[in-house]
Amino acid sequence: MQRRGALFGMPGGSGSRKMAAGDIGELLVPHMPTIRVPRSGDRVYKSECAFSYDSPNSEGGLYVCMNTFLAFGREHVERHFRKTGQSVYMHLKRHVREKVRGASGGALPKRRNSKIFLDLDTDDDLNSDDYEYEDEAKLVIFPDHYEIALPNIEELPALVTIACDAVLSSKSPYRKQDPDTWENELPVSKYANNLTQLDNGVRIPPSGWKCARCDLRENLWLNLTDGSVLCGKWFFDSSGGNGHALEHYRDMGYPLAVKLGTITPDGADVYSFQEEEPVLDPHLAKHLAHFGIDMLHMHGTENGLRDNDIKPRVSEWEVIQETGTKLKPMYGPGYTGLKNLGNSCYLSSVMQAIFSIPEFQRAYVGNLPRIFDYSPLDPTQDFNTQMTKLGHGLLSGQYSKPPVKSELIEQVMKEEHKPQQNGISPRMFKAFVSKSHPEFSSNRQQDAQEFFLHLVNLVERNRIGSENPSDVFRFLVEERIQCCQTRKVRYTERVDYLMQLPVAMEAATNKDELIAYELTRREAEANRRPLPEVVRAKIPFSACLQAFSEPENVDDFWSSALQAKSAGVKTSRFASFPEYLVVQIKKFTFGLDWVPKKFDVSIDMPDLLDINHLRARGLQPGEEELPDISPPIVIPDDSKDRLMNQFIDPSDIDESSVMQLAEMGFPLEACRKAVYFTGNMGAEVAFNWIIVHMEEPDFAEPLTMPGYGGAASAGASVFGATGLDNQPPEEIVAIITSMGFHRNQAIQALRATNNNLERALDWIFSHPEFEEDSDFVIEMENNANANIISEAKPEGPRVKDGSGMYELFAFISHMGTSTMSGHYVCHIKKEGRWVIYNDHKVCASERPPKDLGYMYFYRRIPS
After folding, report:
1. Average pLDDT, integer, range 136-141
2. Of 645, 669, 694, which closes a domain?
3. 166-180, 400-414, 451-465, 705-719: which is most confident
4. Its family (predicted)?
5. In sequence order, which ranges of 121-157 are alpha helices (DSSP H)?
6. Which domain does 58 fall in, by range?
């Protein structure tokens, strides 16, 4: 094999010990049972450490475990050896040297380099004409660090030779995420060329969709034959619903449907019911145009923009990225950039803002030793480990060092280049946090606001003990709904994490300029003349704030006073103010022709923000409350029998329905209970359950049940595990205690993981704080009255209320026509000055465009 020839043609490493063939075989014999050959489906990490951003390019190289195929830098390989006992690692190192110069001073002519065998990205900061690479690999046996140079092909056991060759030949575990391969995996539907479309006059509006059978407003699919909009059920993207789109196919036989909300100039998610898989529709634009979704003109240029859209966007790109200004690069702790993986700038911008917040720094980087030491056996699949790794990479300064002249001179003398890593690649982090999300796991551009909420949800679900840094964003919203006919009111509270401000276009202060610009632009287009310089609408921030506080109509309002649907209006106020206030400007919408549109506006966002006047006041004197009567629960006929069966296994809870409810602002545990008690019948039915039970004292407490197949208990244990009377199987407890863990730890872990041994072990490693609480757990087990748990006072929503005075410290800006295209950058105020984070480039900002931002981050000013 070619790679093997390259591998075993290398000279031995200078640090390797010289041993005879028999000595090498004897040395490896005790470890042979632990050396594996990678199988299909194994992820082989050979370009990035699981705990850091070390790589074969790093000074210490990278160590790949020959059993788990996880990779570790020099700082972290000992930890993995101590935890697992795995002794054999392959050490990978890439050397970068300056090319030998010819007589004329230029580099010698290029020739094929047989010394490169690692599938690594080359350093973009190095000119490939001036430098050459040489890769080195050897086996290292711990704990004595015996090194075996891999040229010894005749002296290595056959299994070791095969395993080494397979590791070096393996593809990157992220290869499937490359943009080219994602779409090529989809076949063209055999129904696309001759699809029948009914001439029934159906026209699909650009928003406000809902299922025609159950009123569900999420996971909706447009049938491309008759234009029916119906909900899905566990299709290829694992979205939830009531399955009405599939039922419609079974009734009518119409084969193709497109998922609403995924339509972009580049295509959409299309599913074939007949072929039972996601497919490509080469005629998608034509099929969508049949229902009034006109996308053809969006292909006017390569990037999906119309020709007359280009010039306005150029101006925006220049202003936001501060083009034309000489920006001074910044280095050191807190000034590390993130490399763009291809439309990953939305993630990078959000994470830069997140890790500029002290609470997130303390929760993850401050707990780094404990999180790393108690990480599960596969740390690449652990949220807290990967958050800590990213936070340390951004804040340590280890990957953001300026070039030093003395070091450059020393490198030249040694004829070896030691490149300074400029930014880090969040590839492992993105792969993990997006793996269960159909959009974020793709390589398409995404909405930074949606990713922010997705991240907050992951932080909520993976909290470290009682510490939850996302609490700094959490606040309560008081919603006052008034029945227009009876004038009676209802006050409710919900949890939210950001403030969404509408764009008050009608309040533009330069309307005359805008009208004149529009007339000039149309005239220039008609006469094929150059377009005039763009005029951007100037919107007062006070007008946007006023629009936020005004009453809005409530669709499908059910009045408990009338026992019927009626007109209603809703007003929202802050029942509490968060420690950090995130403000999103609602710049994006759809036109009547379904073309995504962006309000090209300038808003005078304040550095100091006072929203104390938006504090909720509660029920006022003279107001009469609506009767506490719940609306009737409407259950689809085909699903009524499902309510009569036994409760589902908690591990089978429809997480997509849970997420739909959580995004409405309901507590996560309440959402899980709602989906559980309604038998996975979809978010609509679960929502009705929430309305009925939201006033109960244990509404937000974790779901608990006595065991598999039994009815769930409405109470909850202190730790969110199963009830104390549910004793895990003694044989599984014995297995865990034989590993050196306390018996009470084993019982608690098994209860928290439904008696799953592997998950219980991971739970113990990720919950070290429960070892400290062992006496309390034993006391609970010995207490005959287990009802003391349910009698404990519920904690309630976690909020950090205080003053409504804030100061701006960060903002994220977007360039482009929609959230599905374009680019994001982030500005953060650090040490008294603004800094721009544009992917891997970090520079001091000269003119921060605070008026063109999309998301703004404010911190509370202590009163």
Report:
1. 93
2. 694
3. 451-465
4. Belongs to the peptidase C19 family.
5. none
6. 25-99+130-169
One domain, residues 331 and 448: yes
Question: Is 400 a domain residue?
Answer: yes
Does residue 780 have a pLDDT over 70?
A: no
Catalytic residue among 823, 827, 840, 843: 823
Specify the pLDDT at position 725. Answer: 42
Q: Which of the following is catalytic: 164, 345, 826, 843?
A: 345
Per the structure, how many domains does the chain have?
6
Least confidently predicted of 246-255, 369-378, 516-525: 516-525
* 3-class SS letters over 489-511: EEEEEEEECCEEEECCHHHCCCH
The answer to whether the beta carbons of residues 60 and 54 sit under 8 Å apart is yes
What pLDDT, in 10s, does the model give residues 35-89?
999 998 899 999 999 999 999 999 999 999 999 999 999 999 999 999 999 999 9
Cα separation, 817 vs 820, whole angstroms: 8
- Residue 49 annotated as catalytic: no
Among residues 835, 833, 830, 827, which one has the least CA distance to residue 851?
A: 827
Same structural domain for residues 226 and 93? no
Bond into 255 cis (ω within 30):
no
CATH number of the domain that residue 740 is part of: 1.10.8.10
The helix or strand, by DSSP H or E, that contains position 249, with its residue range, turns out to be helix 244-252
Give residue 738's pLDDT.
63
State the pTM of this model: 0.68
- In terms of domains, do 467 and 495 share one? no
The CATH number for 281's domain is: 3.30.40.10
- At 418 the pLDDT is 53
Which residue, 278, 298, 318, sits at the end of a domain? 298
- Non-local CB neighbours of 571 within 8 Å, separated by 6+ positions: 479, 480, 482, 549, 550, 551, 552
Known catalytic residue at 823: yes
* Side chain identity, residue 700: A
**Shared-domain flag, residues 366 and 385:** yes
What is the distance between the terminal CA atoms of the chain, rounded to a whole angstrom?
A: 70
